[in-house]
Amino acid sequence: AQYRRAVHYVDSVLGAVVEHLRAKGVLDDTLIVATGDHGEAFGERHADNAVHKNHLYEENVRTFLLLSSPKVFPSASVDHRVTFVGDVVPTLAGLVGGSMTTPVGGVDLLSPTYVERIVYFQKTALPTKYGLVDGRWKFIGEQQGPGRQLFDLSTDPTEQKDVSADHAKQVAVYNQLCSNWLVRAQEDAEDHHDESR
């Protein structure tokens, strides 16, 4: 109930901003963007899954990107593609006609050349875990432990049936991909930190 009240409050604030922009006569020339960095869990799908930092199930990692502009988006639409937070800046740069001067690892989601790719994620709260979504497949692995899960989101969108035992080679490949991605991400972060000094 508290979470729903918080969402309702944020919705009312966004509504007030939109009405203010409309009253000032600038709404048609404004791009409104809202997003979140993670989902929230309430133990509904997985009994031991509450809040957002304990697991990497869909309720933890799925979030939203809301883009609103009467000129750019004359009608409402919903897109369920799998992306990551690094795609927000390149997408906004593309919308406003800008260019990226610093690489952020993301892509413009509205580009005509956009293609789906593997999307990675991690959690740093103990036990640390990483994972990926590759089309219909969702992999979750412990960074420092043996735990591995694989879900077929096309037939099991709420991740109730771990099929890792039936796809051992695929799990091994996904675990290695996640490990490689994590090393690259840490190296990129260190390089960026060194450049900003």
Short description:
The chain has helices at 2-24, 58-61, 88-95, 168-195, and strands at residues 32-35, 41-42, 50-51, 65-68, 119-123, 129-134, 137-142, 148-152.
Explain what you see.
This protein has 197 residues and is α+β, with helices and mostly antiparallel strands. 32% of the residues lie in helices and 17% in strands. The protein has four helices and eight strands. It has a four-stranded antiparallel beta sheet, covered by helices on one side. It has a two-stranded antiparallel sheet with strand order 1-4. A two-stranded antiparallel ribbon has the order 2-3. A hairpin with a 5-residue loop joins β5 (119-123) and β6 (129-134). It is globular, with a radius of gyration of 19 Å.
Secondary-structure topology with pairs:
Layout lengths: L1 H23 L7 E4 L5 E2 L7 E2 L6 H4 L3 E4 L19 H8 L23 E5 L5 E6 L2 E6 L5 E5 L15 H28 L2
Antiparallel strand pairs: 1-4, 2-3, 5-6, 6-7, 7-8
Strand content: 15-25%
Order of strands in the sheet with most strands:
5-6-7-8
* Structural class estimated from helices and strands: alpha+beta
Tally of helical segments: 4
Question: Which blocks of ≥5 consecutive residues have pLDDT under 50?
Answer: none
Tell me about the biggest sheet? 4 strands, antiparallel
N-to-C terminal Cα separation, in Å?
Answer: 45 Å
Tertiary shape:
globular
- The portion of residues assigned to helices is 25-40%
Oligomeric state of this protein: single chain
Q: What is the tally of beta strands?
A: 8
Order of helices and strands: HEEEHEHEEEEH
Rounded mean pLDDT score: 89
The gyration radius over C-alpha positions equals 19 Å
